[in-house]
Amino acid sequence: MSLAIMHNLEIKGLIFDLDGVIANTADLHYRAWCKIGDQWGFNLSSAQNEELRGISRKDSILKIANWAGKSFTNEELDAFAFEKNKNYLSYCQTLGTKDILPGVFDFINSSINKDLKLAVGSASKNAKIILQKLGILDLFSIIVDGNMVQNSKPDPEVFIKCAEILELEPKSCVVFEDSQAGIQAAINAGMFSVGVGQEDLESCNYKIKNFEGLSPKQLINQLSN
Ligand code: BG6
Ligand code: MG
């Protein structure tokens, strides 16, 4: 009997956000956005950067330009976003297995052993490149990234798409997220949500500092409480 059925929950799938959940790329995104801000004489604060968690590249640049009081044409915004991404990818050059956040690798492997279906659901258009650099691309047969969705989190599109490809009902899926937009997207999708790494996340079913010591059995216990 599967773990989830033992606890009267039908958890069959786990959907992982990437940035801030599997690896701490948030700092690299921040560095790359700061470099654009510098060109505009604008200092992007870390509090503002927190508001960019989980938000697409396009929506992020719109927010930053707005904070900076700048008005650009679409073409100019696209050019800045392109430049930001070039810088971001150059900072990602050194990423490797060492950058996988604590406990993630073991938790993923235990979940696979328990026959849970896994997917990555990320706003990032670089998700596959980053997973490859981390050396864990092969662990996920399903990756829905920023190239495959029209709407940014908190829209549930990315997670609904994961569930469709996993052939699971939303209520059988758990989403792991470090952003409030992502938690809201999971709620909007009708899924369980686990907040990762950020103390101030609201409305999630369960919160963890990181994956260290967490087993799929403990997770399902917590969600069934
Ligand atoms: C999200 C990050 O996962 O992806 C955001 O939290 C980032 O910070 C967004 O802006 C888009 O990423 P990318 O790699 O497509 O620029
Ligand atoms: Mg994230």
> How much helix, percentage-wise, in residues?
40-55%
CATH third-tier fold name of the largest domain? Rossmann fold
Give the CA-CA distance, first to last residue: 20 Å
Kindly state the mean pLDDT as a whole number? 95
Helix and strand content put the structural class at alpha/beta
Count the E strands. 6
Number of helices: 10
Please give the CATH class of the largest domain. Answer: Alpha Beta
Unreliable stretches covering 5 or more consecutive residues: none
Strand order of the largest sheet: 3-2-1-4-5-6
Give the total of domains: 2
The named CATH superfamily of the largest domain: HAD superfamily/HAD-like
Q: How much of the sequence is in beta strands? A: 5-15%
What is the correct CATH architecture of the largest domain?
Answer: 3-Layer(aba) Sandwich
Describe what is shown at a glance.
By secondary structure, the chain is of the alpha/beta class. It is 44% helix and 11% strand.
Key descriptive features of the protein:
Rossmann fold, 6 strands, DNA polymerase, domain 1, binds magnesium ion, 44% helix, alpha/beta, globular, binds 6-O-phosphono-beta-D-glucopyranose
Give a written overview of the molecule.
- With 225 residues, the chain is an alpha/beta fold.
- The chain folds into two domains: 3-24 and 96-224, Rossmann fold; 26-94, DNA polymerase, domain 1 (Orthogonal Bundle).
- It contains ten helices and six strands.
- The protein has a six-stranded parallel beta sheet, with helices on both faces.
- Helix 2 packs across helix 5 and helix 4 (57-68) crosses helix 5 (74-91).
- The structure holds 6-O-phosphono-beta-D-glucopyranose (BG6) and magnesium ion.
- 6-O-phosphono-beta-D-glucopyranose is lined by residues 18-20, 29, 52-57, 60, 85, 122-126, 146.
